[in-house]
Amino acid sequence: VMREANRRLVQENTSYQELTWRLERALSEKERLATQLKKANEELERLAYADALTGLVNRRRFLEAFPAEVSRHGRSGRAITLLMIDLDNFKKVNDTYGHPFGDTVIEAVAETIKDTMRNTDIKARIGGEEMCVVLPECTQAVAQTIAERLRANIESLQIEAPTRTVPITASIGGCTWTGKTRDPQKIKKICKCMLEVADAALYESKNSGRNQVTWREMQLEL
C-alpha cells in the first residue's frame, strides 16, 4: 500500500510539474504574440499615415495634425507657421526623364526637407510634387530664415539623369499666425485661412520667377 501510495505521489508531482511547465510556455507564447501584434498595429498605423514614396506624413494625417497644432497654439498664444513647397517645372522633368526619375527627385527633396527641418515640425506630402511643413512655435522672422535655407538646400541637390545632372528648384510660400482662441469654429477658420494665404504666397513665388520664398501676412478677423 505504501509503495502504491508513493508511486501515485510521484506521478502526481510529475504531472503538476509538467502542467506548470506547459502553463509557463503558454504565458511566454502569449507575451510573444502580444508583442508581435503591437508591432504589427504600430506598422499599420505608420503606413496609414505615411506617404509611401517619401515617408513624409500623408495628406490624411496632415489634415488631422494641422488643426490640432493650431488649436494648441490658440491656447498658448504662440506663433505657428505654415510653409507650402512646390517643385518648379516638375511636369517637364517627368516628361523629359520619365516618372521613375521624377519619383527619385521627389524622394531627394523629401529627404532634404527632413534634414533641414526640426524633428518637431510636421512634414507632409499633400499631393504630387507639392509638400508642406508646419513649424510649431516659430515666428515669421525665424521661419523665413528656415524657408530660405530649405530653398537653397533644394537648389544645391545634384540628381543625375542618364545623360546629365538635372537642376532642381522649388518655390515656397509661407504665413505665420499668432493669436489666442479656444473656439473650435475659429480654429477651423484659422486653418482654412493659413492654407489659402500660404498657397497664394506660393503662387506668387511661381509667378515671380520661381526658386524663391514669398511671405504673406494673415488678414483674418475672428
Report the biggest beta sheet as strand number plus sense, adding barrel if it closes. 5 strands, mixed
Q: Major sheet: order of its strands?
A: 2-3-1-6-7
- β-strand number: 7
Rg over CA atoms: 28 Å
Which structural class matches the secondary elements?
A: alpha+beta
Helix content: 55-70%
- Report strand %: 15-25%
Mean pLDDT: 90
Uncertain stretches: none
User: What count of helical segments does DSSP give?
Assistant: 6
Gap from first CA to last CA: 94 Å
Identify the overall geometry: elongated
Order of helices and strands: HHEHHEEHEEEHE
List the topology elements.
Elements: H1 2-49, H2 59-76, E1 80-87, H3 90-97, H4 99-116, E2 122-127, E3 130-136, H5 140-155, E4 159-160, E5 165-166, E6 170-177, H6 184-207, E7 213-215
Parallel strand pairs: 6-7
Antiparallel strand pairs: 1-3, 1-6, 2-3, 4-5
Helix pairs in contact: 2-6, 3-4, 4-5
Quick overview of this protein structure:
By secondary structure, the protein is of the alpha+beta class.
List keywords for this structure.
222 residues; 59% helix; alpha+beta; two-stranded antiparallel ribbon; five-stranded mixed β-sheet; 6 helices
Explain what the structure shows:
The chain has 222 residues and is of the alpha+beta class. Helix content is 59%, strand content 16%. It is built from six helices and seven strands; from the N terminus they run ααβααββαβββαβ. It has a five-stranded mixed sheet with strand order 2-3-1-6-7, sandwiched between helices. The chain has a two-stranded antiparallel sheet with strand order 4-5. A hairpin with a 2-residue loop joins β2 (122-127) and β3. It is elongated. It starts with a helix and ends in a 7-residue tail after the last strand. The mean pLDDT is 90.
